[in-house]
Structure formats: C-alpha cells, structure tokens
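pinned: reference chain
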Amino acid sequence: MTAPDHLVPVPAWRLRPAALLRTAGITAIVLYCLAPFYWMVVSSLRRPTDQYQLSPLPRPWSGANFAAVFKPDVGFQRSLLNSLVVAGVTTVLTLLVGTVSAYALARLEFRFKGLVAGIIIATSMFPGISLIVPLLQLFSDIGWINTYQAMVVPSMSFALPLAVWTLTAFFRQLPAELEQAAMVDGCTRGQAFRKVIIPIAAPGIFTTAIITFIAAWNEFIIALSMVNEKSMQTATVAISRFTGAYRFDQPYGTQMAAGVLVTVPLVIAVLVFQRRIIAGLTAGGVK
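pinned: its structure tokens
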C-alpha cells in the first residue's frame, strides 16, 4: 500500500534550490581562486623535464626545483631577507603613523578635517606606475637608489591611506567615554590613547598590520625600479629574473618553487588569523 502523494517526503534538494545554488556558486568561486595555487604547487614538485605535463599530480615527485632555488649562486635567501625587511619596516612605520592619524581623524575636531580625509583617500587612487619616474629622479638625486628606504617610503604612501581609513572606522565605533573615564582618573589624552584605546583597538590594528604586510611583501614595480643590485632585490623581483640552466630556457619549475616559498606562508597566516582579520574589518561597521 503506497502513501498518499501529500504524505510522500520531498527531497531536501527540492525544498532548498536557493541554498544549493548558493553552495554551488561558493564552490565555483573557491575552486577558481585556489586553482592557480594548486597548479603552482604541482608544477613546483615536477622534475624539470616534466614541466609541460598536464597530469593533475606530478609523476614522479621531485624536489629538484626547490634545490635549484636555494643554490648559492641564485641568492634567493638574501632576496627573502630583503622582502622581510622591507615588508616589516613598512608595516611598523605604517602602523605608527596610521594609528595616530586615524585617531586624530576619529576623535579630534579641527579645521579642514573633511579635506584632509579626502586627500588621504585620493592618494590611494594614483596608479603606482605614475609615481615611479619622479620618485626615481628624486631618489637618484639624494642617493637612495639600491637602499631599503627607496622601497619602504613609496610602499608606505600606498599602505597609509588604507591603514588610516580602516583604523578611523574602528576608532569611531569606540565610545568616547572610555577616554573621558581615563582622564577623570588622572590620565592625559595621550596616556588614555596608549593605555585604554590601543589595547581595545588591537583587532583592528592587527588586521591592518596583516593587510599592510601582505601588500608590501607582494610589491613589485617599486622594488624593480629602485634597485638594480642583485644583493638588494626583493623576492618578487628575484623570481622575475630567474634564468634557466643555459640562460635561454624558461625556468618554470624554479619560478613555481620560489612562488610557493613566497606565497604559501602568507596563505597559511591568513587562514590561521582569518577570524581576527574578519573581526577587524567588520568591527568598524557595528555600533
């Protein structure tokens, strides 16, 4: 005996077509974003003679490309150190200047405050390539070519607007009563900022630090233009200048292996700290 039609259970997929469509869309986006990273890792583990194979997995697995990256004559270790120095110094200086600037925009009242905020956001709209020629001439005149500061200062000019706007939104959602209570207890405004506001704003500051570090680590055009000595080039520039065994073939495997070394640690860091990054980015929009 069969049950009436109105008693027959309907499959869940027929009840939730919107949910299935949303899941399929998210899956497609994730696959689209991860496919280049997957192929980079797979290509880095192929033998140099197998670089043009299209198999989804390397057969056999090989670490020859990674060994080639760390050969003494390549100097990639020095390039990684240069990238770490440039990205680290850029992040620290951006946080120091950006935190104070964002607090001033969020809390203080002064003339032309709106104009200052507009100028800050407008500077982020200039394409980097348009600033290379004047900066190159300026740094040549003052002797900054092939120095860390020639890469740090321009990187800060692009990282600061993002840092200021992110932290300004975060500071604005913090109650002003926090500083007032601290000043009633005897703190100056500067002490209230350091001892009360900074600890509470740690999620936003941490998010800004991660984004700034990634942007400075991945920067290419400035480092390529301001440095022509091999000992001062960053990892991104070093990868672009890799040569093959005979200086005529394209070293795809070596470039992929170097790309893994440069990219995967950042991906892991973002995955580990994703909750704090999302919290810092969304905290400024919640009262």
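why pinned: The longest helix spans residues 76-107. The chain has two domains: 5-65, 75-241.
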